[in-house]
DNA sequence: TCATTATATCGACGTTTTCCGATATGTCAA
DNA sequence: TTGACATATCGGAAAACGTCGATATAATGA
């Protein structure tokens, strides 16, 4: 768990926004054909749409969040679904709490 | 309390190092003529020395930490003493814990 | 007042980050 | 297989960051 990578990932308004939205996917995203937004996650297109940035940027930002261990990805057919990794986030915040 | 500024301040190895040292000043810094390292803080020269960077950089990094609310500064004579603002840090970490 | 010392600020330059458009890859359906 | 769609990756321009040396400011003491 590289703390600096986590802080870097969190040093960006758009990425914090994504994490925020993913806290309550059904509140922020349209329901998806036979996919449980909460269990599986939200696809890149929907995040791109809300972000008001290009698909390229959204994809890269999701990658950064994933590398930092804050979200996880699941590929299903054409779609990649991203969701928060609450376990990991709990470990990270408790680590920050303890060591900062 | 600007969260992003905090994360940016923490996205740097040297600045994290400074925060770490300031947790236990007497362990990492020489005693200072009639100044309580713990109560008043550590002066810029001593931090510069340990950082292995220039005085300019140390001063700027301390400024960044201060603007993020992580440390506070006290000027006494020629010296500026920096110490962790534990109150603020507690608020910040608890805020991260709660909102991340 | 002047020299000295501690700190802050300025200007610069290389590196990293931000964000984009273009294109490649993967997947499905016809 | 081909076309269409979702996502990832590449290459780049502009902004921000990391870090320095030089210089300005503040405080002290001779």
Describe this structure in words.
The structure is a homodimer of 100-residue chains. With 100 residues, the first copy, chain A, is of the alpha+beta class. Chain A has one domain (3-85): Winged helix-like DNA-binding domain superfamily/Winged helix DNA-binding domain (Arc Repressor Mutant, subunit A), CATH 1.10.10. Chain A is built from six helices and three strands; from the N terminus they run H-H-H-E-H-H-E-E-H. A three-stranded antiparallel β-sheet of chain A has the order 1-3-2. In chain A, strand 2 (71-76) and strand 3 (79-84) form a beta hairpin. Chain A starts with a helix and ends with a helix. Chain A binds a DNA duplex (30 and 30 nucleotides) through residues 8, 11-12, 14, 43-45, 53-61, 63, 75, 77-80. Chains A, B: This is Helix-turn-helix domain-containing protein. Chains A, B: It comes from Paenibacillus monticola. Chains A, B: Pfam families: HTH_5. Chains A, B: Keywords: DNA-binding, Transcription, Transcription regulation.
């Amino acid at each position: 768990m590289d703390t600096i990578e986590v802080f870097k990932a969190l040093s960006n308004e758009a990425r914090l926004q994504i994490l925020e939205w993913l806290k309550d996917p059904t509140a922020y995203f349209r329901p998806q054909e036979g996919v449980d937004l909460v269990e599986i996650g939200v696809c890149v297109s929907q995040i791109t749409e809300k972000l008001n940035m290009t698909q390229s940027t959204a994809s890269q930002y999701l990658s950064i969040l994933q590398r930092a261990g804050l979200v996880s990805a699941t590929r299903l057919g054409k779609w990649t679904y991203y969701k928060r990794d609450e376990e990991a986030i709990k470990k990270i915040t408790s680590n920050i709490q303890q060591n900062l």
